[in-house]
Amino acid sequence: MATKTLAQWATNLSPSSLPASVRQAAVKSLYNYIGCAIGGSNHPAVTKAYDALSPFFGPATSSLYGSKGAVKTDAQHAALLNGIASHVHDYDDTHLATIIHPTGPVASAVLAYAEYKGSITGPEVLCALTAGIEASCKIGLAVWPEHYDIGWHITSSTGSVGAAVGVGKLMKLSEEQMAHAIGLAAVQVVGLREMFGSDTKSFHPGRAAQSGLLAALLAEKGYTSSPQALEAKRGWANVVAGGGTPKLEHYLSELGQKWEIEANAFKPFPCGIVCHPAIDGCIQLHQELQSKGLKPALIQKIEARVHPLVIELTSKRTPKDGLESKFSVFHGAAVGLLYGKAGPAQYADEVVRDQTVIDIRDKIDATADESLAADETYLTLYFADGSKLEKHTKHAVGSLEVPMSEEQLTEKFVDQAALVLSEGARQASDAAWKISEATDVAEVLRML
Amino acid sequence: MATKTLAQWATNLSPSSLPASVRQAAVKSLYNYIGCAIGGSNHPAVTKAYDALSPFFGPATSSLYGSKGAVKTDAQHAALLNGIASHVHDYDDTHLATIIHPTGPVASAVLAYAEYKGSITGPEVLCALTAGIEASCKIGLAVWPEHYDIGWHITSSTGSVGAAVGVGKLMKLSEEQMAHAIGLAAVQVVGLREMFGSDTKSFHPGRAAQSGLLAALLAEKGYTSSPQALEAKRGWANVVAGGGTPKLEHYLSELGQKWEIEANAFKPFPCGIVCHPAIDGCIQLHQELQSKGLKPALIQKIEARVHPLVIELTSKRTPKDGLESKFSVFHGAAVGLLYGKAGPAQYADEVVRDQTVIDIRDKIDATADESLAADETYLTLYFADGSKLEKHTKHAVGSLEVPMSEEQLTEKFVDQAALVLSEGARQASDAAWKISEATDVAEVLRML
């Protein structure tokens, strides 16, 4: 029943049936996504992919956001390339219960298709995005945590289904077609955690977007799949659950009751979310040091007690470049302490290799403490005179308890866009905030 | 080391280093593939996919074989569509130790790229095809049987890696680039067994071809992956092994020593290979009945003792159409007995719904016998007068012990092509046999 349940729910969802809080979460998710896609657009991974694939581009209908300026490509390649760009700085959003970054795969497909199709409204896009994100997160919950533990990159391994559902909404697929689209997406399982630290990590959500779009396109023309694609003995959930017992029925029964998009958080720092509490604490300590007139160079030792996942995922002691530094809680903490900021500019290669940063980084000890919550950290700075400074971060900024405000989201967007666009970062931000009210989203997307 | 071992071996393989028997196996595999791709080209699944995707086609460089006539599309879509066509009648080849149908994903990508690139010779294509097939089958062996048991369609789940290696050979990738291509392909795991019986089954090898091509294209431009993509704790093999212990090192150490392509068999009948022994036996019984002047209608009951996998995979008692009949040992046996033939024409919808066929089909009992080999069957026909006729098939035609001859392969090709092409089936066959000697394979492919 799970595939049918999801197809039926998604098919019946309408823009007017979204609760206001859900709609607001979708607006923020979409806005944050566009900022990230612009911010990542001039990353070498995107450039390499663009160069590799431009000989195969079809009719230019769908924009590549950001640095490629007015460049368009066919919808399938736009979904792939914007999807890569949106994730390449590890700066996107996070559904905290599953560590899924849900908007990238869904929005990359939905927007590329909307611009191709034309005359699709902002509210329709929000509805499609919401349907897709609910799909990804619910099936992700059903196989969490075993699925992630054995090594799947859960953002993309669930993202193709979300993208198919999202595009399927814009196509107004019938329930039966939607089920086929879900099945066609479910057989394209993309993303292994082994790729973290290489270009292929960001390929994952891009390819998931493209795979989901492809699934919906085929289903629209009557291509058939299994109506039990998700729940069958040899369907998606059992195959990818890694020995766990998928709880599809349970989570899908909550569709429309409990909205996962409301639990979508936005990253304040362009790196793995697990090290955000330590960075947040260090930024607060930077401010305290400043107010006391103390220089970070006076610090002799820094102790961090962190959740065990921080050590497991982000313990690169000596990152060589910006990419590796995203998997280094030590780098994030160091720039937080030194500069009071850990934005894209602080993850540039030059900063990672800066001796001042390295000196602070090497003074940091991090120990796993199983008693801590995932977004909690204790930091202690030790000074030469024997004094110390402590900071307990109970919830990091960007968590559900301390969400980023619209102003903080705008600053994040503009900071990213300013690094990529020669001008117009603020205008792009204004346009992106308004996309949800557009009568034809294609007109807005062309301006990004 | 597994990823490096495979990349190194593939990079060093040259057309002149292929043993004659390997070269001959590659020629047959390629020829058989082309016949199947032509034969499947007017199947509704291919037509639906073509209609869905034609708005996105890029520059027309690569041919769609068969019914689409002189139609070309971009190499990525050609890989997808030809890959679907090659598998849609379940008539392709089989690496018996893994039940992988290895040529579809690899050849669909290699030929589409060769035609795009131009000036690629027949021997280069054979070398690329061989490298790709060895890659797919070796990594398939490493995760067999657990990988298949939990529900992956092993043809496509290994096929993207094979396709990437094959295309990578034509690109003359460095060893490092080849390793990245393998990694990029390994994260695109396509194909669930739940889809058997729907259009999505044939989508699997097509998408694997396209995914492998994409992986090689990205790697060629420096897109990076993990150098331990296959063997890492959270790399391909461990993630997809379904609880088994992958034996990558063992099988990859045999690269170039033991050639899997030599163990590639060609299907004499367009259906799941497990029911071939029963069909072969029924065709032999048809000939005996004819020589004795006995009509099949005189048969009261037919007993078949078969390998348990036959019951597990092909026990559809009342198939509704041609597609379902491929998963019915009863249908295959019935047309074998009635017509002495089980080619594509005998799997048409009309034949499946023909009352004469249904009458015979309903007289068949099949029981699993664990003592039998996978390609062995005992058949007994019971007649109204109390007499009976028995047939023991020790090895089915198309097995390694009773391989299809070049004449049988040619008949298979021409039978398929004649159903699709208004004329020129024999000429297409002649061209396909000669592709391995071409100085530019693009010139031959245009004629198909």
List the helices and strands and how they pair.
Two copies of one chain form a homodimer.
Chain A: H1 2-12, H2 20-39, H3 44-53, E1 62-63, E2 72-73, H4 75-87, E3 93-95, H5 103-117, H6 122-143, H7 146-150, H8 154-171, H9 175-186, E4 188-190, H10 200-220, H11 236-240, H12 248-252, E5 264-266, H13 276-292, E6 299-306, H14 308-314, H15 322-325, H16 329-339, H17 349-352, H18 355-361, E7 364-368, E8 377-383, E9 388-393, H19 406-420, H20 425-434, H21 441-445
Parallel strand pairs in A: 6-7
Antiparallel strand pairs in A: 1-2, 3-5, 6-8, 8-9
Helix pairs in contact in A: 1-9, 2-4, 2-6, 2-19, 3-4, 4-5, 4-10, 5-6, 5-8, 5-10, 6-8, 8-9, 8-10, 9-10, 13-16, 16-18, 19-20
Word description of this protein:
- The structure is a homodimer of 448-residue chains.
- By secondary structure, chain A is α+β, with helices and mostly antiparallel strands.
- The first copy, chain A, folds into two domains: 2-268 and 425-445, 2-methylcitrate dehydratase PrpD (Orthogonal Bundle); 273-393, 2-methylcitrate dehydratase PrpD (60s Ribosomal Protein L30, Chain: A, 2-Layer Sandwich).
- Chain A has 21 helices and nine strands.
- Chain A has a four-stranded mixed beta sheet, with helices on one face. In chain A, strands 1-2 form a two-stranded antiparallel sheet. In chain A, strands 3-5 form a two-stranded antiparallel sheet.
- The longest helix of chain A is centred in the first third of the chain and has 22 residues, at 122-143.
- The mean pLDDT of chain A is 95.
- At the A-B interface, helix 3, helix 9, strand 4, helix 10 and helix 11 of A face helix 3, helix 9, strand 4, helix 10 and helix 11 of B.
- Chains A, B: InterPro entries: MmgE/PrpD_sf (IPR036148), MmgE/PrpD_sf_1 (IPR042183), MmgE/PrpD_sf_2 (IPR042188), MmgE_PrpD (IPR005656), MmgE_PrpD_C (IPR045337), MmgE_PrpD_N (IPR045336).
- Chains A, B: Residues 269-427 form the MmgE/PrpD C-terminal domain.
- Chains A, B: Belongs to the PrpD family.
- Chains A, B: GO terms for molecular function: lyase activity.
